[in-house]
Structure formats: C-alpha cells, structure tokens
Amino acid sequence: MSNPSTSDTRPSPEGVGGGLDRGNTTMGALVRSLRTGAPILPFLVYVVLGLGIPTVVIFNFAFRSGTGQLTWSNMRLITTGQYLTGFETSIKLGLVTAIIPGVLGTMLAYAIATSRREAPKRIVAATSGVLANFGGVNLAFMFVASFGFVGVATKWLARIGLNPWDHGFNLYKFSGVAFVYMYFQIPLMVLVITPALNGLRPAWREAAENLGASSWRYWRHVGLPVLMPSVLGSMFLLFGSGFSAYATTEALTGGTIALTPIQIGAILQGNVLSGEQNIGFALGVGMILILMASVLAYSFLSRRTSRWLR
Amino acid sequence: MASLTVEDFTTSEPSVDPYSSGRARRRRIHWGRGVVLVLGFAYFVVPLYAALDFALQNIQGGFSFSPLTQIAGQPGFGSAIWLSTELAVVTMALTMALMVPTTIYVHLRMPRFRRFMEVITVLPIVIPPIVLVIGVLQASPLWLKSTPYLLALVYVVLAMPFAYRSLDAGLGALDLKTLVEASRSLGASWIATIWRVLVPNLRTALVSASVLTLALVFGEFTVASLDNWTTLPVWIANSSTNNPHVATAVAMIALLATALVLTVIVSLDRSQSRRSRRS
Amino acid sequence: MLVETESETAKLKPAVGQPEGAPVVLEGLTRQFGSTRALDGFDLRIAPGEFVALLGPSGCGKTTALRALAGFERPDRGRVLVDGVDVSAIPAQRRDMGMVFQSYSLFPNMSARDNVAFGLQLRKQRASARRKRAEELLELVGLSEHVGKYPHQLSGGQQQRVALARALAIEPRVLLLDEPLSALDAKVRADLRDQIRDLQRRLAITTVFVTHDQEEALSMADRVCVMSKGRSEQIATPSELYSQPTTAFVAEFVGVSSRVNVTRSGDSVIVFGTPVKVRGGLASLGTGDLDALLRPEDVDVRVAHDGMGIVVHRSFLGGTTRLEVGIGGETVRADVMSSVADTFELGTRVDLSVNARDVLVTEQRPLI
Prior knowledge:
By secondary structure, chain A is mainly alpha-helical.
C-alpha cells in the first residue's frame, strides 16, 4: 500500500566549489541546486524563449492600445459583439465535443475493456492512438470529400433518401465542425479513460455481489462514483482540445465560422479594423485563461482519481 | 472472469432459474455491444472509404488513378514536400538534442524536478498553437521571420510534450541508476555511457518520440499558414480549388502514411515493454 | 486490539430463530479451465460453526473451491449444499455468505463505516440503524477511531479488519476468507490471526479459510483440508495432520520430513537397522522400493564412534537444535535439545533410531 518513494539522490559536487556550496547555509543550498540544475539549462532557456517570451508578449500587448498605452479597452472589447459570440460558440463547441465524445468514448472503451478476447483490445488501443492524432487539414479534406455538399457519402445517402444536408446538416457550420471533431475526440477519450476502467478492481465487483448487490446497484454505488472523477477530468481535457482547435476548422470552413481561434487567425491575416490592432492578443489572453481553468479542473480531478484507483 | 455475471444497466431481477436469465441478459448485452461497435466502426470507416473514393476520381467523376499520377506535376507540390521534410529533420534533431540529455539527467539526478517537467509539458495545452503563434510572430526579430526555420523552432516547443512523455516512459522502464552506476564503475565516460548503454535501451522511446515529432511537423497547419510558409498541409489547403481530387488524394496519402507509421510505433512499443517485463 | 465485552458480543449474536452457523457440504466439485483441472472431484463436509482451513500450494484448487462455494465459479460437476439446501444454482448475490478477499476489496469511494454498512444498505435498513451497526462492528474489530476514514487512509491490516466487519455485517451463515493475511506484514498477520479466530469462536459462524501458509492453517483451524491438484489429500485436525500424515504429500507439505530408503521385513520396515511398524499397513504399497517419511522430533540421535551417520549441519532453533545427519547417502533431520547440542559437533559420528509408534511409508520417488 505504501507508495514506492523515488530515491532522493543527493548530488555530489564533483568539482571545486570554492567552499560556497558547503555547509547548511541558504547560499550553499542555492549554489548546490544551481550546480545540479546546470545541465538542464539549455532546456530551460529554450522553454523561456520559445514559450515564456511569446506568452509575456501576448499579455503585454493585450493591455496596450495602438499607441502603446496601458488600457483595459482590448479586454473589454472582446467581451462584446462578434468576439463575445466567438467565445460563446467556441465554448459551446468545446462542451459539445467534450460531453458527447466523452460519453460515447467511455461506452466504447467499456465495451472493449470488458470483452474477453485480447485481439479487439489491442486493435482498438492501436487504432485509438492513431486516430487521436488525426486532425488538421487532412481530416478536413477527408470529411469534405465524403460528407461535403457534393461528397461521396452524401451522394450515397441521398440515393436512399437520407441526405443529411436536407435535414439541417451543414458540414461548414457548427454541426458539421462538431461532427468532424468527434473523429479525434472519441479516440482521445478511449485512450484516456481506458486506464481508469482497467483500474476498477474485480474484487470490488465481487465484494459487492457477495454482499447482495445486483449489477445495477454495483454501478450506482461503487462503479460510477469511482469512475466519475476520471470521466469528468478527461472531459475537461477534451474540452481544451475542442475549444482551441484551429487547423481543422480553418481548412473546413475557410474561416467563415465565428470561433475565437478562427477570429485570431483572421486578425493575423490582416483583417483588422483600425484601432483594434491588439485585439488578437486580448483574444489570446481570453483563451489562455479559459484553458487554464480547464487544465486546473482536470488536474484536480485526476489527483482524486489516482488516490482511489491506485 | 468467466464466472462474473454480466454487467447490465437495467434493473431486471433474475427469474426462477437465475442462470438462464443470466444467459438471456448476456445475450442482450452481446447484442447491444455489437450495435455499439458496428456504429462506431461505421462512423470511423465510412468517411475514410468515401474520401478514398473521391480521391480516385477524374474530373468527370468516374474511377481513375489519374489524380495520383498528377500529384507530382502540381505546381508547388515539390517545394512544399521539400520544405516539410527539411523542417521535420531540423525539428527532430533539435528536439532530440534538447530533450534526451535533459530527460536522462532529470531522471538520474533531479527526481523532484519531474513534477515541474510534467507541468511544462502541459503548458502547450494551456497555450495552444493558435495562441502561441501570435506571441511568436510579435516577438521574433525580422531576420528570423524571413526564414522558415522559425517554424522549426516553434515546432520544437510543440513537440516537447510528446518527446518528454515517450522518453520518460522509456526511462521509467529501465533501472536507470543501476545501469549508469554499472557502466561508470566499469570505467565508461558519460558520453560513452549515454551512447553505448542508454541509447540502445531507449531505442523504442527514441523512435517513438522522433516519429511523433515527424507526424506533428508533417501535419502542422496553424503556425505554418499564419507565418506564410507553404509546407505540405498549407499546400494541400491552398490547392483544393485547382483540383480537389488531387488535393484529397494527397491528404489521404498523408493520413494513411501517418496511420501506418503510428501503428508501427504502437506495436514496437508493445513488444519492447513485453521484453523488458520478462527480463 | 479486540474489545471484549459481553454486551458487544451479545449485540452481534444473530436474532433468535436464525441459524448461527450452517453446515456446508461440497460434493464432487469439478472445474476445468481449458486444459487444467482446478478441481477434480473435491469433497468436503463442514459442521456448523466449524473453522476449516483449505491449505495447499498455489494451483491446488483451494481458491477455486472457495469461489465455487461463494458462487463466483460455477463447477462443471458437483454440488454445493448449505444447511441441506442445494445452492449451486443460486447466484453469489443471494447466497448469504460473507467473503473477505485477499486485498484492496474495500470500496474506495466510501468511508470505513459506509463500507461496512453497504450490505445493510442493500437490505434497505434505515440509515441511522445501519450506521449504528457499522460502528458497533468496527468497534469490535478495534477500529472505532477510524470509522470515518477512507480505504486509502488505512493500513493493510486495518483495511482487512474493515473487510471482516463488512462481511460480518450481513450476518452470513458462512464466512469465507480468501488468503486475507497474505498481503500483510508478519507482525500484523500474527495479530489479525488471533483476532479473526477469537471473533469466529464467539460468533460460531461456519468459516472456510484459504491459505498457503501452514502455520496459519495449523494455528487457526479446527480442521485442515490439505489440497493438491484439485483434490483433498487429507482432512484432519492440525495435530493429526502433523503427527499422522496419511500421504507423502501431506507429510512433506506440513512440517518438515526426511526421506529415508527402507526395506521390508514382514509387515514392518527396517529403519536405521531396526524394524518399525508401518502406518496403514504395507498392503496398499506396491512391490517397488520404499521410503519412510520421518519427522525431526521422531528421530533420536546418539553419539557413537562406529556410528552409521555423520553430523553435517546444525541449526539453532531456540529450544531445539536441528541436526542434519548424512547417513547411507541420504540426509536426515533430527532435533535435539539445545542444551546438549554441543555434543554434536560437525563431523561427529552418530547413530540414529526412530522414536515413534509407526512410520509413514511411501513408494520411492522415481529419479527425475
């Protein structure tokens, strides 16, 4: 039951340190940790340059007007009009492509996890790994070719009178985009939830049965409560993925749908109104804040999970 | 496992002969599970098949291999592929050079730092490519922006989480401390230890990390298009108006190539972990 | 530490009219998994309130037998009878047995109290009643300060005590324990052993306890059923099992035995030059070579200058010292009082003799 503790290797100062690193002073500790950390400096520098500086720049310019003065106007602007619509639609898209694939993915993962033969499990595991990495332009083209207005699958369905376009489906609008997102969101969910499903010990099931519980009562009192943090946490992960996707949607809709990433793209491509130059940065800040909340929720829930599903 | 009664989301109570109703319940579940799997299969396969159908059509709509033969001749295709390949190579080299020593060192000497590393690899989720690119474009000096290698530098950041996770998993399966101590006690230098002892044992993780990076670069559209460089995905997106069949054909080839390569990694991964578990 | 008060035990006694412990019969159980026979015609009768241990090496079928009793395995052939009723067709949920699993069987999303109360919750007891009962049971197993804790906050030993309380909460007719102590530290194991046994005696529940540890089985059980290859080798009280093993397997699995080649002499065998009676007679043994199985305490050692054996090893075991004597190409273990162990230095020539009424004799094992 005890967690194996990672051995805490004390760094042995191999060189001469001029005595600065000896002793129990804070200075000594600082020098020691600097010396220990030295080899990973290139990595840290790269992270600072590649990730840190762009982020600082984004936050900086988000709060500056076109003339360089500090201002809230950009941030205020993004909560109005088309930008507000963009955020709302993006959040809605994130939620829809988190909840539906979340439920479907869990059901699929469960169907696989409880199957008795090894082969389906391995196939699905491999396929999920592959499909979860699909996306972007190629995926968009695949769907345009199959379910576009003159797509091949559309024609097949039209022949049997079930043309989805006649029933309100539009690949280039919200419903279509969500439909396409499921292609990688569902496998992502399967990948993420399968370890949790495997963490359900058979002993719990048997103990419940032994005490007189039916299948339903087991799930209600033990199975689902134990799984829920995992499922919710994974859905937050999916939300992040669906909320911030750009390539797939841009390739699919050509930038004609009101989503925050698309709006950012439009601004970068030069479609800016004068006086709103730094709106793009403000939109970026908005996205970062929303995503941070999502990741924190995921992290909190997964800590819960790991406590229970040791 | 065979003895467990079947999972069920209904509340049916067993009748007089519980085992026979159990069997009936089981049959219902197999049926339900079958439907789920068939629908799932359909959703994932139908678009694939339909798109392949579309890709292999000529202008009139009949079946034809001509889109495939026309690929090479399309304007800009050659340079787009070349650019993507260049970027992929540079990105892979940089990522490996950065992540391999760092991950090994953190595993070996700074175990508490691993949590921090995990946070870093989560950052690209909080700062997705579409957001990162505005910061990068603003912060980069002009001389950097005028070369495509800026993309490679950004791609390294995007690839870090995948590379770290692969290497971390690979290192976790080894008894790193023991291997290093054994090697050092036999007189090997650090370089020799890394090159002759660790790298061979990390082969799968290295391949996995490299291939994921490769797939990432060849599929990356956001940063490339907004920085105005015509990599393969950008080319595909732009050429859809000229000849949609050809563009789709290229997209499908790219998809299938990615799928093939990723499947190979997954099976490599599995056989490697089986081997290290047995030893 | 167990709290021992009359009132607590009285609260646990089943209501008037309910059976305390039920008699259990396992009849001809057979279960095959692919090409392996986990159970091969296994029979066992258990009296009400009896504590029976199923003892054997891994793969002998003891866990399968327990699970067949619980209802988690459906035997291919044979029946399970509880209180005279054939329960073979009744699913595990309704067999009214309490089971304690090897480890980590507590529901992680419930506190200790809720875990114990779960069975009562399923039986629609009111919340206040089942809370009270759960706390009573937890007090009985010595965990009253931990009722609100979650499984991940409890040690292995504490978790198993909660599991025990949970199994007892439903007032089962039979208590089943599947190697509940195997995953615990030695000290915790010893303490829990006593607690389980004490509790069982007071509640008089028919109990079946599976283990591969003979010390556990011998110290806890009223009777032990030694199993091998899906069948029972011998079912007897611990002392009978130890002093009168009826098969070579039991003699060698339970306690320590030494194998010595012997020759026939009428209805006895010659061991160390003297005839000794054969337990169970020679009739059932074939005409091949025979071995006798000797316990260390049944072998007397005497210093002799022309002795047949040489002391090759000595192990200090506390009150006794175990000598290993090389004799006639074989090694025999013999115990002597530690106070005289000094006379048996390594290399001393000794004579051995058997100090028992009869010996267990078996056919010689073929060489590899």
